[in-house]
Each structure stands twice: as structure tokens, then as C-alpha cells.
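Exercise 3.2. Students should predict the tertiary structure of the chain below and write it as C-alpha cells, then compare their answer with the key that follows.

Predict this chain's 3D structure.
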Amino acid sequence: MSILDKPLTPRPERSKRPFIILGIVIVLILILLLFTNVGNDVTFVQHFVTAPNHFTYNGHSNYVSAVGWSPDGKRIASASGDGTVQVWDASNGGHVLTYRGHSGDVLTMAWSPDGQYIASGGLDTTVQVWNATTGAHVSTYHGHTDAVYDVVWSPDGRRIASASNDGTVQVWDALTGKNVASYSNQSNGRGQAAPFNAVAWSPDGKRIAVGGNGDVMLLDATTARVLGYLGHQGGIVHALAWSPDGRYLAVGSSNTTVELWDMTSGNNVFNYTGHTADVLAVAWSPDGKRIASASSDGTVQVWDALTGNHAYIYRGHADYYWGHFTSGASVDAVAWSPDGKRIASGGSDNTVQVWAAM
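Answer key:
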């Protein structure tokens, strides 16, 4: 039999799958064109595929509760519900170290003024002090009986103040853990005291502002004696921040506002109302001219501290774009770089994002 006599092998049938997929895509495009605004569709596609103008750190596997720049601006530390505090290069995200000393969610962290140490606290009721370069444990403070929500160093770096769900604010020696002074909320009659969520040390080292489920109080930094109260906040206080010169105090709360108080007169001088949900974190620019406020509405808003004139809204945590598919994320933490050029923010999308301070 010659080759001409051999039966021809039938051609394999061409797969219909690509045509089906193409048809589905065409139908979806037609639906978009018919029932939505074409201009908005084009804008969304452009936004989705355009690389965002920020750096994203993806080292955490759970929500980011706190962020802080090292005093020299070279590193960022971030605390997370994954039980770690991670220290990394602020310019490229290069990983420096992971601290795993806590046995539960880490809710707060703060650099010492000299940048040598980090204090971190969380659900395990402890505050731990450790070397920011090596991760070596220095001391553990066991004075609280419930979750620690916030920690702050004194300006001279010798003491730490910690605010807790146990209804106390405690001041203690940073290296030895020896208690110096404490303030306790009164029990509600059922053995429970209103928690403290936020604590901030004045730049002159003399006063500590504390807030929680009630009015902001001012305590003597040495004795924890009450010096006074700010007016009624009308919500749960989540965040406190003194201006760099110590004249003003910014208060972020569940009433969606940031209140600005003049600490020389005790008067409320301005309320920022740009957010639509709880304000969870506030940070001053190093020159004291602007404030960045982070909210569970998914935004960080940057605005003039004394007038509220709006500067910029950052939506990187709650927005859709290539590589970030989480929507509606809460922004739980915000920190301004020491040189004032960048802002770091962290949230429930498990990321820390570093972006230009507009």
C-alpha cells in the first residue's frame, strides 16, 4: 500500500473553550456599556491596572494594629494580630527582625526616644521591652490584669505609661519594670472598671493624657494624680496625640471627629468632621502644621491642624487595585516620618502602606 492509499488521520477538533470565554467577556463588556457609565468604567479599569504610588509591606498575616517610625526614620515597626511585631527597612521593606515574645494579638508598640528599644503590649496583658536591633528581650511588665491597648515612652526614655482594658493607667520604669504610679477607674458595681484605650505623654514630660469610655483626663506624670479633664467627647476615645510643641492635644473618637484642644487654656478650638466612622489613630506632622487621622471608614485624611482645611484623602487600604483586592478595610494605625515627607498606615487588610505626605 502506498502512502497515497493510507486513510487520512482526521484532524483533531478545535477546542471551543477559548470561544466560550471570549463570548462571556464580550457579553460582560456589553452589559457594562449598556447599564453603567462608560466614563466611570474606563476610570475604574485605569485605576485598577495602574501601580499605586506607595510601598506596601505584606509581612503580616493578620490585622495591623500599630505602626511607628524609628527616630532616625530608617526603620518602621508594625504590630499585628498575628502575634508579632516586625521591624523592617522603611525605604524598601527589607525585613530586619520579627519579635515573637507575646502569646496573643499585639495591640500596641512604641519606639524609645533613642531608638534602641521597642515596647509592645497586647492581649496577653503584658508590656514587653526589647532591643529594636537584635530582638533581645529586656524586661516584661506584669502589672495589668487585662489587655494592654496603648503604650508610650516618657520623653527622657526612662519610663513607660500603659493603658489597659483593666481600667488602669500605669507608669513604670522602662528597664526594671518597677511600678512608679497608677491611676484606676472606679468599678461600675459589677467588678468592672471602664477601660482606657489611649495614653499620650506631653513633650515636656510633666503630664499624661489618657482616654477611654469617658472624658479625657490629664494626669501628673510622676504621681498619676488627676490634674483636670477635657470637656465631654461624646464617644469612646480611641486615640490621643500632643502637638510637637505641647500646646495642643488631638483626640480621635467613636463620634467620627478629631477634637483639637488648646492645652494652655483648656478650650476646644476646632473639631474635624471629615470622617464617617470611628477615628482610630491620629498623628501630627513634625512641624505641627497638619494632622493625619485614620478611621474605620477606610481612609487616612490629612488636614490643616488649626483650620481643618482639607489637604488629602488616602484610600489605599480600602481600594481595589492590582495586588490589593480587599475592600472596606479599616485603617487602625498612622504615623508620620520624622522628616515629615512620608506617612505609614496599617489596617485590617493586613498591610502597612508607606506613602508621600501630600
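Discussion points: The two ends are 83 Å apart (CA to CA). Residues 1-12, 39-51 have pLDDT under 50 and may be disordered.
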